Each structure stands twice: as C-alpha cells, then as structure tokens.
Amino acid sequence: MPKGIDLTLMIGPAIPLPVPKEVLDALTSLEVTSRTDQPSGFQLKFTLKKGSTLSTLFLLAGGAQIPLVRVLIVVTLNGTPEVLMDGVMTHHEVTGGSGAGSTVLTITGEDLSRAMDYIDFTGTPYPAMPPEARALVILAKYAFLGVVPLVIPTILIDVPIPVDRIPVHQGTDFRYLRKLADAAGYVFYIEPGPVPGASVGYWGPNIKVGVPQPALNVDMDAHTNVESLSFSFNSQAASLPIIFISEPTTHAPIPIPVPDISPLNPPLGSIPPLPLNFNLMQGTAKQTPVEAAQTGMAEASKKADAITATGTLDALRKQTELTGSLEDVFLSLTGRLALAS
C-alpha cells in the first residue's frame, strides 16, 4: 500500500540542519523548479505568527545577513528519499496583512550553482587543458559543499598547445562552465542527491532518456496515471548549420553542412524534421578544423529539437509503479511524447 509523501526541510549556514517542528508546521507552500538550461530554483512560504521562531531566524539579523544559507528539501516517497533541492537562499521578504495568520514570509533561492557565481576568476590560466579538464579543475573547488563532478569528455578533444595559445578563465566559475558547455553543445547544471548533502555537478551532453518506466496512460479509467498532457510540433524551428573550413594553401573557405543527427542529439522520432533554414556559422573559418567541427555540432544539437511536451503526473498514485527517480519519470514522459509524434 502507498505510504504517502513525507517532507524533510533542512536550513543552515554551510551545513543545513533539520528545522524545528514549529517552522515545518508554518510551511504553507513549496515550489521547486528543475532546469538544465539555467539554475534550478525553489520558493518556500511560511505563515508568521506573533513570537514565531521564523522572525528570529530571518528578520532580526537586519543588514548583517549570513552570506551563505543553505536549504535542503527532501521528499520521502513510498519509503525512498528523493532530494528535490540542495541550494542557497537568495532572497526573503515579508508580506503583511490585517487578519490573523495573514503575514507571510517568502523565501526564494537557487541551487548550488549560485555559490559558483559570486567571485570573478577572470585571468586564471589553463595551459594545455581541454574544456573537460578545465571543468574538472573548477568543480573541484566546491567539494566542501558536497558537489561531486561528473564530466563527460567532448567528442572532438582539442588540446591547446601552450606555445600557440593558453586558455584563460572568463567571468565567474558558473558563467565560464556554461560558456564551455555551450561551445561543446553540452549543458552544465547541478543535480541534487543522490543522498542528502551531496550533489552532482554535471557537465556533458543533454540527457534525453531515463530509466524505462511503466506505460503512461491517459483517459483509461482506473489505469489512468497522467492527469494531463499536451505536445506541439514546430517544424520551423529546425535549421541546418553550415561551417567554413579554411584551405591551408589558398585560404579559400570551404562550406560544410553539419547534420542535426549526431551523438549529441539522438533522434526522438522515426522521421526527424526537415531543416527549412540554413545558419551560416560566421567566424568558423578562423578556427582550427577541430574547433569549427565542434562549433557546428554544438549549434546543430541546439536547433534540432522541434517538439515540446508538457504533462502532469500524480506521483503519489503512481509511486507503486516507479522504478527510478521522479526526474526519470518526467524524462520518460517527454521521450514518449516525442516518439509518438
């Protein structure tokens, strides 16, 4: 029989601790947004009462706020803990009211990538280091927060020769990691878990498949496990990148089209959309052939997706069928809708 959902909330500087029961009872709303294209976020809403512990924790500090307040949200589903968010608090505000219990404390925050976006390390050299090596060096700084790096090497490894050029750090760690990922057609994000207090710093291709799940059923009476779903197909979104390779002798640019089907972008449907637009990649003629090919593959991986799917799953009803995490379920939902189209 389903055991329901239990919530664990932990807050504290650097190392979060379980909140008192009074704080958990005052929680009225919890929202977690998980993304791969930008930092994930969360929002907590509490009802403030006279003499509440929350006022002491978040309001009496005045202007001297704690620099890093960590928030850990864990949901236990059918006896299995699932870390929904491991992040830091970025903002809190109080909304007053005239009625009893109408004063609301709202706390918003982002995942641990926010801690990587505070200090500018521009100018740090990385001699003879390809992008994946640079990503490992950067993520190693955040081991004290429990971040474990998971870096997938690029398809075309380009090791810069120090006598020709030495890559240097540009901006904060988070912005530079995102820049390296975009150049390779990869993504970078922080995945909370698999255990509370630990996170995975993923730098690699965008994963579009997950653990196989039971069938998703709509409008099938007692077998229905999806509350709602919708999908759209935009055939105008697909485009074909064209890179230019400079011929060594005459320096004449040679155009080379880059197809959108590559290891970075496996097809989701039996018939991929035909590209209607051609994207001339300016500046690739000045790059080395390996750099130009990597740039073209990265652009092709971004422009091939023409399917958008959204859906709502009743996790409590489906928990007896789950064979993976909640993220795996929604990845399965997206993939199956794409295949159906």
Task: Give me the secondary-structure topology.
Elements: E1 5-13, E2 17-18, H1 21-25, E3 27-33, E4 41-47, H2 53-58, E5 69-77, E6 80-95, E7 104-111, H3 131-139, E8 147-151, H4 173-184, E9 187-192, E10 199-204, E11 226-233, E12 239-246, E13 253-257, E14 277-280, H5 289-303, E15 307-313, H6 315-318, H7 326-340
Helix pairs in contact: 3-4
Description of the molecule:
- The protein is an alpha+beta fold.
- The protein has four domains: 112 residues, Thrombin, subunit H (Beta Barrel), CATH 2.40.10.10; 86 residues, Phage tail protein beta-alpha-beta fold (3-Layer(bab) Sandwich), CATH 3.55.50; 45 residues, no CATH class; 71 residues, no CATH class.
- Helix 3 runs antiparallel to helix 4.
- The relative contact order is 0.13.
Class derived from helix and strand content: alpha+beta
CATH class of the largest domain equals Mainly Beta
Q: Helices and strands, in N-to-C order? A: EEHEEHEEEHEHEEEEEEHEHH
Radius of gyration over alpha carbons?
24 Å
Mean pLDDT: 79
* Main beta sheet: 7 strands, antiparallel
Number of strands: 15
| Beta-strand content estimate | 25-35%
Which stretches are low in confidence, meaning pLDDT under 50 for 5 or more residues running? 60-64, 320-341
What's the shape?
Answer: globular
Across the major sheet, the strand order is: 2-1-5-6-7-4-3
Count of domains: 4
Ends distance: 35 Å
The CATH homology group name of the largest domain? Trypsin-like serine proteases
Q: Summarize the amount of helix as a percent range.
A: 10-25%
Task: Please give the count of helices.
Answer: 7
CATH third-tier fold name of the largest domain: Thrombin, subunit H
At CATH level 2, the architecture of the largest domain is Beta Barrel
